[in-house]
Design brief:
The chain is of the alpha+beta class. The protein is built from 5 helices and 14 strands. It has helices at residues 5-22, 217-231, 234-244, 253-273, 280-313; strands at 30-31, 47-48, 60-61, 69-72, 83-88, 95-98, 102-103, 110-118, 129-134, 149-151, 163-171, 184-185, 191-198, 203-215. Helix 2 (217-231) runs parallel beside helix 5 (280-313), helix 3 crosses helix 5 (280-313) and helix 4 packs antiparallel against helix 5 (280-313). It is elongated, with a radius of gyration of 26 Å. The termini are far apart. The structure holds calcium ion (CA). Residues 40-42, 75, 79-80, 82-83, 208 line the site of calcium ion (CA).
């Protein structure tokens, strides 16, 4: 059957809407599968998780506590039917789950997200949800363990309501200073473990819809860079400059500058258009440089015109 274009567009819109419902507030393109296995806890039977065990896909109960985990039929919006319940008490104030080692590429971008809730009867809360980074030997990415993990911001919702939280993780742009921000991937990181905890608190908390995905940073950067080039009419400016250059004598600073700028514009366009995988920091450098480069290109065009006029007069 041949699907006409308008119908195909409608189908695409429906698919996009369904996807949007699954991950309600994510507006970046994702690549591949969820790197967290059983992040929605749908693979686990309802009921208490036996002491010493964790839900399928997870690695260990945080703090080696003794059976404070339960799978309940109380899912976050559009997250199936089940969620993880974590109960912390004055006697056992710490629990939660650690995921297994997940291999990552520190030059790429990721997003971590999830739903959290605390029981309507619970006072206060402390449910740190985040990750620990590990190096190629699966040792903490920082020798100081407290500097090897970070948490997402907590959702701002009242007790009894599910709240969604997300964080985009980008390569550390300054790996040599020995520190990295909460949303940065340390340059030596090759693995992470997801942490979904209830810590130093007593009450009942819930986790559901936990996700970790590669972000398709290239497609966003490509659109921004090539869009800026189109908007500035870079091809037309380029053609004008190329046409004017033969009239500029060799050895003139203006000529060197024009040649360099044309080469840079060509490189950024070429690399933005290609499909080959590039480090996110390279994309970010080109995104930052493009508007300034386009301004310089435009200014150069006028300098060349003035130069040509002066020569005609002189
Ligand atoms: Ca679920």
């Amino acid at each position: 059957m041949r699907i006409t274009l308008p119908i195909a567009l409608v189908l695409l819109t429906v698919v996009a809407a369904l996807h949007a419902q699954e991950t309600p507030e994510i507006d970046v393109p994702l690549l591949g599968e969820n790197l967290i296995v059983n992040g929605s806890f749908e693979l686990s039977p309802v009921g208490p998780v036996p002491p010493g065990e964790v839900p399928e896909g997870w690695s260990d109960e945080a703090y080696g506590a003794d059976g404070q985990l339960t799978i309940v039929e109380d899912a976050a919006p559009a997250e199936g039917s089940k969620a993880l319940q974590v109960t912390v008490t004055q006697q056992n104030p710490n629990s939660g789950i650690h995921g297994p080692f997940i291999e990552i590429d520190p030059t790429q971008a990721y997003i971590q997200f999830g739903w959290q809730k605390i029981d309507a009867s619970s006072r206060g809360s402390n449910m740190p949800y985040g990750r620990q980074w590990f190096d190629a030997d699966q040792q903490g990415a920082d020798q100081e363990i407290s500097r090897s993990y970070n948490y997402l911001a907590k959702p701002d919702v009242p007790p009894g309501e599910w709240g969604f939280t997300q964080q985009i993780l980008l390569p550390d742009p300054t790996p040599d200073d020995g520190k990295f921000a909460a949303n940065e991937i340390p340059a030596n990181a090759r693995y992470l473990k997801v942490w979904a905890l209830a810590y130093n608190w007593h009450g009942i908390g819930y986790y559901d819809g936990l996700g970790l995905y590669r972000v398709d940073y290239a497609s966003m950067a490509r659109e921004r860079i090539l869009g800026a080039m189109d908007e500035a009419d870079a091809d037309a400016i380029r053609a004008e400059i190329e046409a004017a250059l033969p009239n500029v004598p060799e050895g003139l600073e203006l000529r060197t500058r024009a040649t360099d700028l044309l080469a840079e514009q060509a490189r950024i366009s070429r690399e933005a258009a290609q499909e080959q995988q590039r480090p996110v920091l390279d994309w970010m450098a080109d995104e930052t440089r493009t508007p300034e480069m386009l301004r310089e290109l435009d200014a150069l065009r006028w300098e060349l015109k003035i130069e040509a006029l002066l020569r005609a007069v002189g």
